[in-house]
Amino acid sequence: DQLLAAVYDAALPPLDPAANEPLVIEAIDTTVEVAAGVKLNAWTFDGVVPGKVVRMRQGDALDFTLRNNGAIGHSIDFHAAQIPWDVHYKTIVPGDEISFKWTANFPGVFMYHCGTGPVLEHIGNGMYGAVIVDPAAGFAPAREYVLVQSEFYLKQGSGGAWDGDIGRMAAVQPDFVTFNGAANQYQQQPLVAAPGELIRLYVMNAGPTLFSAFHVIGALFDTVYVEGNPANPLRGIQTWTIPPGGGATFELTIPEAGKYPFVTHSFAYTGLGAVGLIEVK
Ligand code: CU
Ligand code: CU
């Protein structure tokens, strides 16, 4: 089998003490590998799909700038923010930038994405990422991973790469459904944990259209925090729905060594790349 050139590192580093420093995100057109040997001419934030994780603490303010180095207009929309769309989420032309400040009032797992129309196409071409807002009181220490589910819709493009296909996006005919932007990548390089270790998965569903039926085969979730907020705990969950544009935080412990696939349990889509492995050893 052909292998991906690189696997997106799902391990989530601890909250950066520099998280209060100004953040610049750049819109960049580049090629990304969405499945082994399959390159997409993508529209990205910072050249990666999904964009970099922004980790903050509840109550923190973020001094933010979007710089547009792409070929067309782009914008950014933070679901974790409570600020006016018409003022801050407006489209800026290539070469321009926009700055604004917002405060993370709610803890959780949130989407950010380009909000320029057609939004379906800007998200479908790769313009999204996750904001993780730690609760003010923090969570217990754990082995932490971030997973962003999203789907890709392709047509033949230029330079041996593929382009996003707005027609297939509108018809919901995905070619790949992925975690962290590449089909089956965590089969190539599984997430790891130890038997009995607390595992915390921050899962965001970027869509643009499919729901995620998030499930780990051979395991149950001790706790699902709806939207990633510790005020919303549910216990003993087998599968949890994450809508496009939503998130959830999953805590589980796996007693026995072995391989445990994580999937979307919507099986028409599972085989398109939405299967990874947690290797417990
Ligand atoms: Cu855009
Ligand atoms: Cu949105």
Write the layout of secondary structure elements.
Elements: E1 23-35, E2 38-45, E3 54-57, E4 61-68, E5 77-78, H1 85-88, E6 97-103, E7 108-113, H2 119-124, E8 128-134, E9 143-152, E10 154-156, E11 162-164, H3 166-171, E12 176-179, H4 185-188, E13 191-193, E14 198-207, E15 212-216, E16 221-226, E17 233-237, E18 239-242, E19 246-253, E20 258-264, H5 267-270, E21 275-280
Keywords, please?
281 residues, mainly beta, six-stranded mixed sheet, 5 helices, 9% helix, 46% strand, binds copper (II) ion
Main sheet attributes: strand count, strand direction, barrel closure: 6 strands, mixed
- Please tally the β strands and state the result: 21
Order of helices and strands: EEEEEHEEHEEEEHEHEEEEEEEEHE
Structural Rg: 18 Å
The set of bound ligands, ions and cofactors reads: copper (II) ion
Overall average pLDDT: 97
Helical residue percent band: under 10%
Distance between the termini: 25 Å
How many separate helices?
A: 5
Q: Structural class from helices and strands?
A: mainly beta
Low-confidence stretches: none
**DSSP strand content:** over 45%
Shape: globular
Strand order of the largest sheet: 6-4-1-2-11-10
